[in-house]
Amino acid sequence: MLKNFIETSRKSAASWKLIVGLIITFFVVGIYLWGKFAAVIKSCETIQKQISQTKIKKDTTFPNEEVPSLDNQKGEWKIYRNERYGYEVKYPEGFEVMEAKPREGNKAVWGAKFLFGEEVQKVTFLEKEYELWPGEFQVCVYSNPDNLSLEQWIDKHEPQDVTGGSLIQDISDTILCGKPAKRLSIFGFDHEAIDIVSFHKGYFYSLRFTGSTPNDPHIEQHKQIYDQMVSSFTFVE
């Protein structure tokens, strides 16, 4: 009887020790987790405060901020002339001239720097000083190995989206240096691209530039520059 009582007392004591140990463990873990939670809350409050201060600073520091002027493009214009493919075009002195070269390797590259497919010559005129949305005008010359007509060439080189749908929004007739041409309005996701295409002495000539975009605060001035460049484009013997 006494032996059973002693054994029961030992088991009860062990149970109480286990319970007390669990309580202490839960208490310690709770304090640890609460500390972590409090640190996260404080960190979030700090980040939110920094964001708010940044917004206030931006709004109050530049209340009347204006985009840079394009007055530098009103100066002298230069002439780019390509004897081999028989054309010339005027461009603002504030634009740099970038000649494309044959592509090497299969790495992703900026299209203005290299020739692709049937392109035999390509030059890009890029505004140097204005970086937000610089003016860009490109002339590209294509070979015609299949002896295609202008309409057939456009069908062959029709830009498409990933589903195979056409990105051409409109095609209209126009004149380029006295020759029949097509003016293509192309959907460019964040802008409208314009491509004027004409055929001359065995080659297709493409003049490309931005037609409209909400990203360029100087789009109207750039459009005037592009129009002047198109008007100055001339086939030479």
Automatic annotation (TrEMBL):
Record-given protein name: PsbP C-terminal domain-containing protein
Organism: candidate division WOR-1 bacterium DG_54_3
Keywords: Membrane, Transmembrane, Transmembrane helix
Entry's transmembrane regions: 12-34
